[in-house]
Amino acid sequence: MSIPEGAVFGLLGPNGAGKTSLIRIINQITAPDSGEVLFRNEHLHPKHTSLIGYLPEERGLYKKMEVGEQALYLAQLKGLSRSEALKRLKTWFERFEIKSWWTKKIEELSKGMQQKVQFIITVVHEPPLLILDEPFTGFDPINANLIKDELLRMKGNGTTIALSTHRMESVEELCTHIALINKSKKLLEGPVRDVRRSFRSNLYEIEYEGTNISLANSLWGNFELLSNEAHGDWMKASIRINDEVNTNALLQGLIQNVTIHSFREVLPSMNDIFIQSVTQPITIES
Amino acid sequence: MNKILLIIQREYLSRVKKKSFIVMTILGPVLMAALALAPVMIANYSGDNVSKILVIDQNPDIFTSTLPGSESVVFINSKLSLDSAKAAFDPEKHYGILFLPSDMMKNPGGAMLFTEKQANLSVTTYIESILKKQIENDKLKSAGIDQKTLSSIDTKVDLKTLSLKGEENSAELATVVGFICGFLIYLFIFLYGVQVMRGVIEEKSNRIVEIIISSVKPFQLMMGKIVGIALVGLTQFLLWIVLTLTLTTIAGKVLVDSGKDATVIAQQMGKDKLDPKGLEELGANSEVKQDMISKCLDKCQVSTSR
Questions:
Q1: What is the tens place of the pLDDT at every residue in B111-120?
Q2: Which of A130, A271, B71, B298 has the most C-beta neighbours closer than 10 Å?
Q3: What is the ipTM score, two decimals?
Q4: Residue A91: HSE in the Cβ half-sphere, 13 Å Cα cutoff
Q5: CB of B208 less than 8 A from some CB of A
Q6: CATH topology for A8-196?
Q7: Does domain A201-265 have CATH number 3.30.70.1710?
Q8: What's the distance, Cα to Cα, between the start and end of chain A in Å?
């Protein structure tokens, strides 16, 4: 699989699929049994560690160490000079409004607070590639949004973000590309829109004003009416049309008989795709 | 290399700043001094209690005179039989009853010491050595060798060891120093090796190891940890040496100034007798030295007269 530069890449898969193992290989924590990892067309090398920011799923810091001292130490291990690390950390601490935590020990902070510190430590050296394993675990909705906004800001600055998550709504919200793996095999890979389209089932949702008969008259025989219910003054119908039907021609027919308020294709959600792919393995690659 | 230095710095500073390090560094020399002084103090303390022992001798031809006592053991001859002595025994007055059978010369193992409680090791050792000496003397006498002849035969050889340049050296001292250093090396490797292991366990249980290993090579982490902790050990060792020397000097001066028995210091130094060189090592001035030597000589004379 490949992670395009500048993308937000979602690494998806059920528990035990091998997501964390793959992330550890990319971070050079463990070595692969086979295969190879290229970073900007170079074989992965220890020099690349300073170009990667890694937030592991199992978070941890030195409990007895002060927050500021620890952040400085880990930032320096990523290749920053002490003065540069100090400058950047101060900016981050101000942005997250946690300046008062600088001299506190990690064990004095709550889990969520520790996660915030850990996030800062992960991104302080401004790596071009950011790898986040379950980044939203342990955050309350406010802090989860804060992290999400920061990720989007970094994406805007050109950072490539690879994240592993089980939260499909985060995938739809953040990811531009995904790869779905199961039992260490890749099931799907590609831009989110293409993946969703590859799972399209010609399902459309129409909101209209008119009668059932006038709707049926305009669709001819190339459809299957799945539901048709009243929603206030309007009607809402779900239809599945045949592959050969042109949606523009369909709309032209509909307009003559009913008043259309909305017409949209219903693409499967990432959740549906995840469940479908994992329970019924397929080999679609966009 | 820079990353190893960073890890060394963290490992070193995080440990040196700990309260336990400061406490142990201060307490270490105190404990060592206590270990060195405890035997002397215990010996002095037990010296105050004199054990009076009733001697029932069934062979008065051999043990005609009272057995020679010491500072802590005194022998009192008794005419009573063993049974009546046992019946009349008062633990407030006497420590025990020493029974010497009539065939003592043929069967030295027949001697028996009766005490109310468990017999003190120093007392039994002293009695054994006195009886052995007495029997040996009697045997020598019966073989026609008197004490004077024996004393003239008794020879002590002290081998002086010198380097080729003529400097005096001591093989015993070198062995002792070597043994102490070997023991310290063992102790330090053991103590600080455990610290390295605890450090690794801490990082594993804190789960920070994943973050560090994604930043540095495992070799760098381990090397930084080992060197950092070794430096902590060396710092502590150095401080212990300095503090021990300071404490010993202060304690020595306090003891000398208060006119305490000079032999205490000599025993502390692991020597049987005081010599001027030993006193110089203690930093005593010439007046104090003279005073201590005279005290020591007095003491020797008292022991001889006894």
A1: 889 988 888 8
A2: A130
A3: 0.78
A4: 10
A5: yes
A6: Rossmann fold (3.40.50)
A7: yes
A8: 12
